[in-house]
């Protein structure tokens, strides 16, 4: 269970974030690279501090997956050597053929943003984007992902800039407990592309009429988002959030942090 | 300007939208092992064999734990448990202590393995032999053998048993019907999960999906035989609860498993286990009778509930609202509780009121129709400003305003009394309304506030944010009390090592912890004031503390802004790296709370010494309005719009408060139209096993929801004036919808949920 | 999930070879049903061969119709221009099923091979002849609200859950399959799935190791008048209580050709041949639609808890035919999109 030194170079913003959160570890990180236990500590610190979440650089750090220890080969039955891209970086690991993409992200790559809500394709909490399509990572065997491009909730932000859909969810309170949220947002992001492609849905008035890109009504947004269950009941707010990103006039921003973040 | 009440966005929002908020199963540790429980496949009987030796040899298996080798837990002992704050074990069945099977799905063994896949496979392969008896699995069959419990949660369960018969016989108008509601499951999106990490043999940390870290810690400590302070429970983020996240047996199982294998162990329930192992709302068969005089004045309300339980004292208290709503001199509220060999029922969002308002508020609609009076008029005519049983005035009550505001916004006046008058294409359109109500509670709570030399403030309490907005509103309260911007306040909750706070349930978190937070901030300011006054270099030196005010991170002399001193300067000159204060407020009623340290100062005016508490009844009220479209050919119903007006005291944050009400209404739409767990009547297995067959509302089921608040602070519940808001939103919703269906179609549906086949049965 | 060997097949012959050689091997498409069932321990293959990378993902125009590839996803198929324009019934049916995410994963071949949603099949602690022949049918005298009203046997009362297949049944599709040694055969859709009889463990007439390669849609004139109606317990993301694929060709108001297939009523998509036969040459009126539906439903044999399906199916057939007459415009038949925004 060796810790693999990794990610020797840090951006300015990432370095600042680490310095703020883990000042004692910085010299070690700079000399020998960031290690898994640093990530664990980072998770622990940011997991309990809402202020830490607003630090510049945190988004990039979190999007970087850090494989958890490679299990000894004898422990892996029917091992599959897998190479695929997650949030832009190539991951190589050996997985049990039974392992789903969701469990690989959560248990092996420390990308726990994708959620396990039902594990049977009945809730949408595990939605990720694979090769530009929204899919359910709980029903996707990791073994089928060779050479594929996976984008998770951790990979949506650009630098410290949240994806517009993430920002809109905050503004419109498109969540309560937050557990379905990564799936809702990944789903909503992919939905924007589907609308641009002119894809139809079950509530599309006439599927024979195909246009290049379509403007979604609320009813269309609801139908197309129906594969993402929210038990807290944030649905109307999620529809508002999506509608704003989809091009409706922005609803006035009611509040923001003094540094301009939402 | 005051932060409290502002619709600010959640301060934890950024973490939630970027996947950084960590939930219990996401705590990964080196050398962690995975546990997967094995469930009983019979309703009742005994285990006679377990092929654990065979499964022990399966790849990756570290341990097979069953009653044969499990750690011996402390046995049930209600008195000792109550003393230890450990009374509410979800199910009175410490796991793996004997070979008895009490219901299908009961945890009877647990596999610990190197990987999740290996643990699951081994659990599936484990062969269990049973001797099986016929179980009691159907409420209707068992109700004739039921009992009338004397008490419910410390209150008389049977109120005026038999007293309504005479006034009902004498009533000019009478409505009496049976209303039934099904078994419902909470199904928070995050399945329950726990990671257990032992330090030696006497210290345990549980990363647990729980609605109460202190609560869970006390119960776990009791059954595991540990000191309470040696069990730390951590849950900064919890993916919904709705009453299901108390302490259920898997939390003990994983602690036992981690102890057995000497490694951190993770156990996450499957969605299927959420149907059998973490409680549910029991089904009810309710008989409601109303009697009025010739002019429609209610004289009598009778509400009888038939329900069941097992392995718990709890039963669904669906008569609760019938003791609170409307003037009626005589009321009778009674219960029959049968035993079923089914997992224990428990609290679920507005326990009692959710099924109970369906029955009472449907009956009110039936009576209004019989009297040919508008349903709102009928309710106004029978309105009460006092608790009709205890006689106390309500602490703060604006129900009539709720009716009026709701009717205006909804456009109630365009409703016709007679059904089947409105159509839209193939659809019959109907309007319905109902009253909402839920008690206002308040428990003991402690909050600690810390300010560092940079002026950053940390608020700490062992409360939980299950999606309610606790993080955000606490920051708002502290911001106002200290005169510091919200974005300088870090809120730390969800850790039992913080000062104790109540379970996030019963709509009482805000009402309980905010008075304590306010007190703690006042204490902190007092200390800063004292430092400044004592400091010759301060412009406030020698002033009377009563002359000092605060704003924008500083103290100043009232009426003279130029005489001021910033918090930073006060701390810096005093060479203090931080300053801290802690306060405890006491409950309205119920058990007290240990004050955690000398730092925690009890509130100046504990509410139990406050005469208000004895004089008033604390309840929230509201009015729910639904428009439904019914496709009569198919029996499909869609709620097309919904208006909810709530009188819940002061609103701490309009944005998060509105979200809670919307969430409650949607939960109610689920209960009205689709949610039901059904069981096989021979074996007792749930036949709705997953989210594919236990339907909860999806996006397309949910219309625009228009929410309004009265917003008047309750002057008696606390200096903050907020009552809870998490549960009232669901109450009355299913009645409003069923009443709207009657208005649309003339069909009165009294058996929830209103799925298409119910329509064909009428 | 029991342990299994996994490989990605690069060509059909290899995939077919591996599965044919191992009686407990399976092809893996999108995984939306098989992985689900494996996690439930209902299906326990010892070997999986991933087929989604095989070159069967095309949708092509042919002289006698359109060929849709077996490994094309449901989403790709439903949104393909050829399908939307020429076979809108199929687009509507696919879009009525599951969720966007599942349709992005599910393959057409996999859809034809999906298994029942019967709870007794899914719960390994209850009896089920389909899962474990000889254990009995738990649903026959159990909770059978969602079960069959046509064509069931004492051995099995399960229904087939696909929406897509109901449209394919109405469209008289032909399924192309490939077996070992490059043997190819075509199966009329009506003969693809089967009724349970004494062998409910077999959902369809494929032999072990046979791989669906494409589905052929014959040319037809139904595009102007077709409709897929789905009735379920919530508005979306739920299996059908009853679904109806209806398609008509009329001359004036006289019915020249009509296709009606039902979902949620039998072990296979149920062609309402009696109703179809009754309608030929008749006027396309509500009264005639009702009469035809009644004629079909006369032969229904409901179980204890699904009697409602008989009346519901009759009304659904009528409404679906009306919908088809109105040109398959969704809003005309179901909840419309006139709701106001909530701001």
TrEMBL record, chain A:
Which Pfam families does the record associate with it? Answer: Fer2, Fer2_2
The protein's matches in InterPro entries, at most eight in alphabetical order, are given as: 2Fe-2S-bd, 2Fe-2S-bd_dom_sf, 2Fe-2S_ferredoxin-like_sf, 2Fe-2S_ferredoxin-type, 2Fe2S_fd_BS, Aldehyde_Oxdr_Iron-Sulfur, Beta-grasp_dom_sf
Q: Does the keyword Iron apply?
A: yes
Source domain of life is Bacteria
Q: Which residues form the 2Fe-2S ferredoxin-type domain?
A: 80-156
Q: Name one GO cellular component term.
A: periplasmic space
One MF term in the entry's GO annotations: oxidoreductase activity, acting on the aldehyde or oxo group of donors
Keywords per UniProt: 2Fe-2S, Iron, Iron-sulfur, Metal-binding, Oxidoreductase
Entries under PANTHER family matching the protein: ALDEHYDE OXIDOREDUCTASE IRON-SULFUR-BINDING SUBUNIT PAOA, OXIDOREDUCTASE, IRON-SULPHUR BINDING SUBUNIT-RELATED-RELATED
Q: What is this protein called?
A: Aldehyde dehydrogenase iron-sulfur subunit
Lineage here is: Bacteria, Pseudomonadati, Bacteroidota, Sphingobacteriia, Sphingobacteriales
UniProtKB/TrEMBL annotation, chain B:
**InterPro entries in alphabetical order:** Ald_Oxase/Xan_DH_a/b, Ald_Oxase/Xan_DH_a/b_sf, Ald_Oxase/xanthine_DH-like, AldOxase/xan_DH_MoCoBD1, AldOxase/xan_DH_MoCoBD2, AldOxase/xan_DH_Mopterin-bd_sf
The Swiss-Prot or TrEMBL record annotates one GO molecular function as:
iron ion binding
| Record keywords | Molybdenum, Oxidoreductase
Residue ranges of domain Aldehyde oxidase/xanthine dehydrogenase a/b hammerhead in the record: 18-134
Give the SUPFAM superfamilies listed for this entry: CO dehydrogenase molybdoprotein N-domain-like, Molybdenum cofactor-binding domain
The cross-references to Pfam families, in alphabetical order and at most eight, read: Ald_Xan_dh_C, MoCoBD_1, MoCoBD_2
Provide the protein name.
Answer: Dehydrogenase
Q: Which organism is it from?
A: Mucilaginibacter galii
Its lineage reads: Bacteria, Pseudomonadati, Bacteroidota, Sphingobacteriia, Sphingobacteriales
TrEMBL record, chain C:
Sorted alphabetically, which Pfam families does this protein's record hold? Answer: CO_deh_flav_C, FAD_binding_5
Q: Which UniProt keywords are present, listed alphabetically? A: FAD, Flavoprotein
Top-level taxon of the source organism: Bacteria
Name of the protein this chain belongs to: FAD-binding molybdopterin dehydrogenase
SMART domains per the record?
A: CO_deh_flav_C (SM01092)
Identify the PROSITE patterns for this entry: FAD_PCMH
Record keywords: Zinc included? no
Q: Per the UniProt entry, what species is this protein from, by scientific name?
A: Mucilaginibacter galii
PANTHER family annotated for this entry?
Answer: OXIDOREDUCTASE (PTHR42659:SF1), XANTHINE DEHYDROGENASE SUBUNIT C-RELATED (PTHR42659)
Q: Where is the FAD-binding PCMH-type domain?
A: 1-222
Molecular function in Gene Ontology: FAD binding; oxidoreductase activity
Q: What is the lineage of its organism?
A: Bacteria, Pseudomonadati, Bacteroidota, Sphingobacteriia, Sphingobacteriales
Q: Report the transmembrane regions from the record.
A: none
Which InterPro entries does the record cross-reference, listed alphabetically? CO_DH_flav_C, CO_DH_flav_C_dom_sf, Diverse_Substr_Oxidored, FAD-bd_PCMH, FAD-bd_PCMH-like_sf, FAD-bd_PCMH_sub1, FAD-bd_PCMH_sub2, Mopterin_DH_FAD-bd
